[in-house]
Amino acid sequence: MAAPWLSGGLPFAVLFLANGGSLLPVSWRNSQDLWIGVPRRGGKIICRKGTKLSERSGTPADDPFRGRHPTSHERVSGLPWDASYHDGPAPWDIGLPQPAIVRLASEGGFAGAVLDAGCGTGENALHVASLGLSVLGVDVAETALAIAREKADDRGIEVEFAAADAFHLQRLGRMFKTVLDCGLFHTFDGDERPGYVASLASVTEHDGTLYVLCFSDDGPDTGPHPISQEELRAAFNPSNGWNVAAIEPDRIQTRYHHDGAPAWFATIKRI
User: Fold this and answer.
1) Is-contact 170 199, C-beta < 8 A?
2) How many angstroms separate the most distant Cα atoms in the chain?
3) What does DSSP assign to residue 141?
4) Model pLDDT for residues 122-140, shown as the tens digit of each residue
5) Whose CA, among 35, 89, 140, 227, lies 20 to 30 Å from 72?
6) Could you tell me if 8 and 79 are in contact, meaning their C-beta atoms sit under 8 angstroms apart?
């Protein structure tokens, strides 16, 4: 599961905010900047040791984005999503499938060929594939994909994992009856969402189903970039080939929420 949290793997409990050249301990819940791993000094991004930013582009000089356009999260943090997996589990990587996905699978919510967009280290994709379904998990983080493939081998589960840009899913050359977005949609800014939604439409069969599990704006202790129901309905509407069938309150489990963060679970049909 991808999310707009800390890149670089530093423990949230010991995060520090750069302020006027001094480091002050802060609560990870109190700063949206810290959720996305962007401590700042004088308005400039501070990167991990060993990462150089291009003066002209603000991105690492060796282009870890592999030629693709960095997402808003990556532009702000100055680091690719892959960096989130370099120093231990990412904050959203709980080592298990999300309970909401397990529940959905037990209710028969997955059918036909399944795409997991932003699969991370693969727990959701692996769970669905273990039920006998054909599953492809995609992500831009090669480190996460390597971990996912190792899990599949260790567990003897038949599943595919591939590197893919979420904004160009048509390049997969395949269509899917069921598509899962667990923690990806909420990482994109408003101006990125139309392109992402169109990308999803390009690989979702007509009358197919998209499930979106994202941080909610309803309730205390919300995750970063919480999404409203109105934003979901605006992004997925009949004019761009979608119909929101249901949006229900749920939880997203993280490594730093005792009982998960407030979430929306949306069921969206391709029309």
Assistant:
1) yes
2) 55
3) -
4) 999 999 999 999 999 999 9
5) 89
6) yes
